[in-house]
Write a structure and sequence with these properties.
Elements: H1 3-24, H2 31-46, H3 55-81, H4 84-106
Helix pairs in contact: 1-2, 1-3, 2-4, 3-4
C-alpha cells in the first residue's frame, strides 16, 4: 500500500464511523465531531497529492490510518461498554494526525518522471 491508499482507507473508515456516531447521538454537541468532519474533507482533498505515492508519503500517511483504526476500536468499545472518553480521545488523535499530514504535505512537492 502507498500513502494514497492509507489516506483513502482512513477517510472511508472515519466517515463510516462518524455517520454511526452521529446516528447514535452519543456525542451530540461535541466540537470534535465538526473537527473530525473537517479532517475527513481535508483527507479527501489531500488524497490525490503525488507525494503520497512515494515512500515518504506513505510514512506520513500511515499515522492517519492508524488513528482511524484506533478510532474504530474505541467506537467498538463504546458500543459494547459505553466508554465515551476513549471515543473522544480517538477522535482527537484522528483530527491531530490529519492536521499533521496536511501541514507536512503543504511543504512537499514531487515531480514524477
Amino acid at each position: 500500500m502507498n500513502g494514497k491508499d492509507y489516506v483513502v482507507k482512513a477517510r472511508e473508515t472515519a466517515e463510516k464511523l462518524l455517520a454511526e456516531i452521529k446516528a447514535q447521538g452519543c456525542l451530540s454537541g461535541e466540537p470534535l465531531l465538526a473537527k473530525a468532519d473537517k479532517a475527513c474533507a481535508d483527507l479527501e482533498r489531500l488524497q490525490n497529492k503525488t507525494v503520497l505515492r512515494t515512500r515518504n508519503g506513505a510514512n506520513l500517511a500511515f499515522p492517519v490510518l492508524d488513528a482511524a483504526e484506533k478510532l474504530q476500536e474505541a467506537w467498538a468499545e463504546v458500543v459494547s461498554e459505553a466508554g465515551v472518553a476513549e471515543l473522544i480521545e480517538g477522535l482527537d488523535e484522528f483530527v491531530r494526525t490529519v492536521e499533521v499530514l496536511e501541514a507536512a504535505l503543504k511543504e512537499r512537492t514531487v515531480i514524477m518522471t
